Amino acid sequence: MIASDTFSVTHEDAQAIDDCWNRIGIHGDKSCPLLTEHIHCRNCAVYSAAATRLLDRYALQQEDREHAPGTLQSEVKTRSLLMFRLGEEWLGLATRSLVEVAPMQTIHSLPHQRSRALLGVANVRGALVACLSLVELLGLDGASSVATGARVMPRMLIIAANGGPVVVPVDEVDGIHAIDERLLEDASKSGSQANAKYTQGVLQFKGRSLRWLDEEQLLSAVTRSLT
């Protein structure tokens, strides 16, 4: 059966087709001699041919619209960022630096630690992986403030540092989001905050002020903390 929305979209084409089903067919006065044989217009070759013509015209129109200049928005380039929270601050890190988001594990302290950022080691699938404090590296206030009743699950981010994977605990993970690169460019142009370490810019996202981290600077700081 020919769908009604097809007629509405291709109204001009429909007018050029003899809709005999509406005149002498099942929806008309039923005087068509072929009704005795076909019982219903949808079983008739004339009806099927008209439907095919309309659908073909519709497909061609859609294709023309897709290729017509200025009819569709240009393809938006995006960059994937992992959004997470430390204390009261929301941050974004490029997902290409991320290996995995894992459940919180016990952190085992190490004797004679020289780096304040090095918390110890955590067991990741049977391997002991260095665990660092982003709060310390970024100079943040680590006090966590979460609305009463909110279901928040602390996580561990496994990130790919130069010397291998490193674990960093975070208070909350919002998820991975594709951000329009134009927004990121605007955030970069506005300039990083003077006292914000390893930051490319600050942008507004989901009603939050999000600090977009400079992954190269951050990973270099991570490597230095392990040496």
CATH topology group of the largest domain: OB fold (Dihydrolipoamide Acetyltransferase, E2P)
Report how far apart the termini are. Answer: 72 Å
Label the CATH architecture of the largest domain. Beta Barrel
Share of helix, binned? 25-40%
Count every beta strand, where a strand is a DSSP E run of 2 or more residues: 11
Radius of gyration: 31 Å
Low-confidence stretches: 1-11
Q: What value does the average pLDDT take?
A: 78
SSE pattern: HHHHHEEEEEEHEEEHEEH
CATH class categorisation of the largest domain = Mainly Beta
* Strand order across the largest sheet: 9-1-2-11-10
Strand content: 25-35%
Major sheet description? 5 strands, mixed
Question: What is the domain total for the residues?
Answer: 2
Q: Which term fits the overall shape?
A: elongated
Name the CATH superfamily classification of the largest domain: CheA-289, Domain 4
How many H/I helices?
8
Global structural class: alpha+beta
